[in-house]
Amino acid sequence: MNAFANRYSTPFLTGLFLVSLISGIALFFHWSSGTFHAMHEWLSMVLILPFAFHIWKNWRALIGYIKRKQLIWPLVISLIAAAIFVVPSIIGNGAGSGGNPAFRAISTLSQAPITHLAPVLATTPEDVIKSLQDKGLSVISENQTLEEISRNNGADARDLVISLLPSGK
């Protein structure tokens, strides 16, 4: 194992870092995001293994950085940079709060009364109610929300929203 780490950790680390760098730049500029997204995520996960081998191989040097306190500021600055993106999402403030916009949209739609939801779905409240009843759900009024209906019927509100979305044909 030590021979493998000595021989391959840095070359693999370099190769996978370059893949991550190029795919990250492509994602940042929205160049063929569908092509690069999965590659960036998965190969960045694979990058962890050669990184761990590299740390193992260079453990003494890392300890030297720690003893000389040369590692503190780079780590602090890196954590602050990460926090700038993470904290607003966690506390719910800022432009990017609340996570994935699709999940926020589905949550918002599930909280709207059927009378408000139907026009968004390009249909009528009666058709929404019929569709829900065809799924075996009890609907009392067109003023109910999908959240209420799902709670009363033991269903998942998100699944109901998704099932009502137009097919896009």
Automatic annotation (TrEMBL):
Keywords: Membrane, Transmembrane, Transmembrane helix. It comes from the Bacteria. The chain crosses the membrane at residues 12-30, 42-59, 71-91. This is DUF4405 domain-containing protein.
